[in-house]
Design goal:
Layout: E1 6-10, H1 14-25, E2 29-34, H2 41-51, E3 68-72, H3 73-76, E4 85-88, H4 94-107, E5 113-116, H5 123-126, H6 132-137, E6 138-143, E7 152-157, H7 163-175, E8 180-183, H8 192-210, H9 214-221, H10 233-239, H11 241-254, H12 261-264, H13 267-278, E9 291-296, E10 299-305, E11 312-314, H14 326-331, H15 335-352, H16 362-372, H17 379-386, H18 388-397, H19 404-408, E12 415-418, E13 421-425, E14 431-433, H20 443-449, E15 454-455, E16 459-463, E17 468-473, H21 482-498, E18 501-504, H22 517-525, H23 529-547, E19 553-555, E20 559-562, H24 564-571, E21 574-578, E22 581-584, H25 587-590, H26 599-609, H27 619-629, H28 637-643, E23 651-653, H29 659-671, H30 688-703, H31 709-723, H32 735-750, H33 753-765
Parallel strand pairs: 1-2, 1-4, 2-3, 4-5, 5-6, 7-8, 17-18, 18-19, 19-21, 20-22, 21-23
Antiparallel strand pairs: 6-7, 9-10, 10-11, 12-13, 13-14, 15-16, 16-17
Length: 771
């Protein structure tokens, strides 16, 4: 099979749309065809326009949408001959799919990969009666929704599938689409849904039987078990109550009567789901589901379904002291402890029956639940946390099945670390290394076999080979403090002495949420203004050392890189960003200060250098003020380039597992002949005229209700910095002069009661104070 350059997506529904959008995110040309001619060119064009306004956004940038061509199968099916892969995402009816495959096979180019996005129909049924040449090119590729954000892709080959074609699609999905590929057997629900549907059924059934409220059930099944706070009832609302009912019913029809799923898929649950659908309560996309929000005049009322009466009542905040951690919860002799034990026990027990029937090993199931349903831990990782012996005792106490895989693990654990390598327990009773795909480097693997080169309480430095060091934040939420700055300064010295390059990277949920505001508030409360200014100046100096180091420095952000995290990214000589990087200077709104570690000057210099920016003293300043005063955060790495937080030359990695390897390769490629950048000169600074412009902008924001009194103070301080203070158009400011203006503005603001109130409020609530 040749390289994949153009892909056809068949099916004009929501799933076809989000799959087409994500393919375009990867820079691939897409032919999106509606299955029905009634949904013509205009309808699909309208669907693209709608997706461009949807939140969360299916597209990473507006430019990606231009890669999609639209049409319908009656007029345009012959054009699939232009494509290297055809993805079918039409209705879940076997007869409709098979009829389409016969039409497709008549026009597709021989050797073109064909896949179905089905989540329920067995592959053997889909290809029944099709020629061997078609079966050879066919597979199931089950994308999860929302496709851009859900990293799991289940790939199901058939007995006649060409291994080379399967490998080519899997490799493309990994590298270009950023998916973690789990290879599954042709069994109902494949891996993630096969386990998730019984988990949801068990949760709802046990909540009904034990008399729990939906709020109590979601609180127990959520955070203590490492599952998103939506729990199960909130998740059903999210996917749709009707879809939940159909999926649970369909799974029941597909599985043999001997399957344990029939024990947890009870009529009591299905009756409630049917009643809700009949009354129009279909979830978040409708008037409500298990939870709903309604207005009564100006009041916004939160309600939830009572599982006994199936009527709405006021939403309740559950008080479950034993839910502080999983061990306490499972040990509690209460209805909550019993509920947790029965749900988690049934889920892990069922997971143990799926190896090797659904997939080859336990790691594939754990990966499927982590990435398909955002579980923090997979079921076998949870089994290790409980302890296999305790888990077996729990199952026996609750009269739940103890499958052979669990019995055979008695006295062992499902995972272990041996000779620095993480291993999983196979069905043969032996441990096997967890292997990474070629081109993947994980810091967690390096940390098992090595000691840090440098370390303190907030950061660590690791040798990742070939003369490259990796600087890792280790503080809470990767917030930045004086210890990180101190160690970064030492690391710059060390690389200069003994190494070739530096990568700044970590494997936390977020690169960094910004500066440690708690430390700043403490210093302000004791009026330690000198210490605050010293920390500010040291941060400025260290980040400039990073920028002008005589070796390549590469930032590799993923998730949020806010405030100081954004400033570190902008001071590196290059960036290799995860596609899902959310970058921004948010200090004005969140903390009531200006960016204090050189972010003002860095963004201004980039905007001034942007060839698309109109020339003159005002445009770049106006754009910066608009971006920073509104605390704009990019919704992707692609959008960060459009805003100016990233350069056009910076790299983007679609698969987060490949980020460190890509960043290291980028750093090494820059070593030969590397020269640090020349310091910028800030000419044509608008001075007082720029500040007058800012005053007009802020006044407009105030009139529109977008700014409050202290916003005006903060934003005028920012305007003074980026306009050059008292500078004249004929003056040229150095980078240090802009830093001095930035530091002075920060110190003025941090002494104001309104700024301190903002810092205190965001620390207490996690939300900015509007004052």
């Amino acid at each position: 099979m040749k390289a994949i350059n153009k892909i056809a997506v068949i099916g004009g529904g929501p799933m076809g749309g989000v799959v087409a959008a994500h393919l375009a995110n990867a820079g691939v040309k897409v032919l999106w065809l509606s299955y029905r001619k009634a949904a013509d060119h205009n309808a699909l064009t309208g669907a693209i326009e709608k997706m461009l306004k949807t939140s969360p956004a299916p597209f990473m940038s507006k430019g990606a949408a231009k890669l999609i061509e639209v049409g319908n199968i009656d007029d345009d099916l012959g054009r699939v001959a232009e494509c290297d892969w055809v993805i079918e995402a039409i209705m879940e009816r076997l007869d409709v799919k098979q009829s389409f495959y016969r039409k497709l096979d008549a026009v597709r180019r021989p050797g073109t990969a064909v896949s179905s996005n089905t989540s329920t129909i067995p592959l053997a049924k889909l290809t029944e009666g099709m020629p061997e040449t078609f079966r050879r090119d066919f597979m199931v590729t089950h994308f999860f929704n929302p496709t851009r954000y859900m990293r799991l892709l289940e790939v199901v080959p058939g007995p006649d599938s060409d291994p080379a074609t399967i490998d080519a699609v899997a490799q493309f999905a990994d590298v270009a689409l950023g998916k973690s590929v789990v290879r599954c057997n042709d069994s109902p629900g494949f891996v993630a849904n096969r386990l998730a549907i019984p988990w949801m059924a068990a949760t709802m059934a046990e909540a009904i039987d034990l008399g729990l409220t939906v709020e109590e059930a979601d609180a127990i099944v959520g955070t203590p078990m490492g599952i998103p706070k939506t729990g199960v009832f909130g998740l059903v609302d999210l996917v749709g109550v009707g879809i939940g009912h159909e999926t649970m019913t369909s799974m029941g029809n597909l599985l043999p009567k001997s399957d344990f799923y029939h024990v947890v898929n009870r009529d009591s649950t299905l009756t409630i789901l049917r009643k809700m659908v009949a009354e129009g309560y279909t979830g978040r996309q409708g008037p409500g589901g298990f939870y709903r929000r309604r207005r009564d005049g100006d009041a916004r009322i939160k309600e939830a379904i009572d599982l006994k009466s199936v009527e709405y009542r006021a939403e309740q905040t559950p008080d479950i002291p034993e839910a502080k951690n999983l061990a306490t919860l499972l040990a509690a002799d209460t209805k909550y402890g019993r509920f947790a034990a029965r749900v988690l026990g049934a889920t892990i027990s069922y997971a143990a029956t799926l190896v090797p029937s659904a997939t080859a090993d336990i790691e594939s199931i754990d990966e499927g639940m982590r990435l398909g349903y955002n579980w923090r831990w997979g079921p076998f990782e949870l089994a290790d946390m409980i302890g296999v012996a305790k888990l077996i005792a729990l199952l026996e106490r609750e009269r739940l099945p103890v499958p052979a895989l669990l019995r055979n693990a008695a006295g062992k654990s499902f995972y272990r670390v041996e000779n620095g390598k993480r291993q999983f327990l196979g069905i043969d009773g032996a441990y096997h290394d967890i292997t990474r795909p070629p081109g993947v480097i994980m810091l967690e693997d390096i940390k098992r076999v090595a000691k840090p080169v440098l370390k303190n309480g907030s950061a660590a430095v690791w040798d990742i080979g070939d003369g490259v060091l990796c600087f890792e934040f280790t503080s809470k939420a990767n917030s930045l403090d004086d210890k990180i700055i101190e160690l970064l300064d030492k690391t710059i010295d060390l690389v200069q002495q003994k190494y070739k390059a530096l990568v700044i990277y970590n494997e936390g949920q977020n690169f960094s949420v910004g500066a440690n505001l708690g430390a700043a508030l403490f210093a302000a409360n004791i009026a330690a203004w000198g210490e605050i200014e010293k920390t500010l100046a040291t941060g400025q100096q260290t980040l400039k050392r990073l920028k002008y180091a005589p070796f390549p420095t590469v930032a590799a952000p993923a998730g949020m890189a806010l405030g100081g995290g954004c400033e570190i990214v902008m001071h590196c000589s290059a960036v290799q960003a995860s596609a899902e990087s959310y970058i921004g200077l948010v200090e004005t709104a969140s903390a009531g200060v200006v960016p204090g570690w050189g972010g003002c000057g860095e963004l201004l210099a980039r905007l001034r250098a942007d060839k698309k920016m109109p020339r003159g003293p005002i445009p770049a300043v106006a754009k910066l003020l608009e971006t920073v005063t509104t605390a704009t955060v990019s919704k992707s790495a692609a959008e960060a380039k459009e805003i100016g937080f990233l350069r056009e030359t910076d790299g983007v990695t679609m698969n987060r597992y490949r980020l460190l390897a890509d960043a290291k390769a980028r750093a090494l490629a820059m070593v030969a002949g590397y020269k640090p950048p020349a310091p910028p000169e800030f000419t044509w600074m608008p001075g007082r005229s720029g500040q007058a412009l800012a005053r007009g902008m802020v006044h407009g924001f105030r009139q529109r209700g977008l700014a409050l009194p202290h916003d005006e103070v903060v934003n005028m301080a920012l305007a003074e910095v980026v306009s050059g203070g008292d500078a004249d158009l004929t003056d040229t400011l150095t980078e240090q002069q802009v830093l001095d203006l930035e530091r002075a503005a920060f110190m003025r603001l941090v002494k104001t009661p309104a700024t301190l109130a903002r810092i205190e409020h965001v620390l207490e609530t996690g939300r900015p104070l509007r004052n």
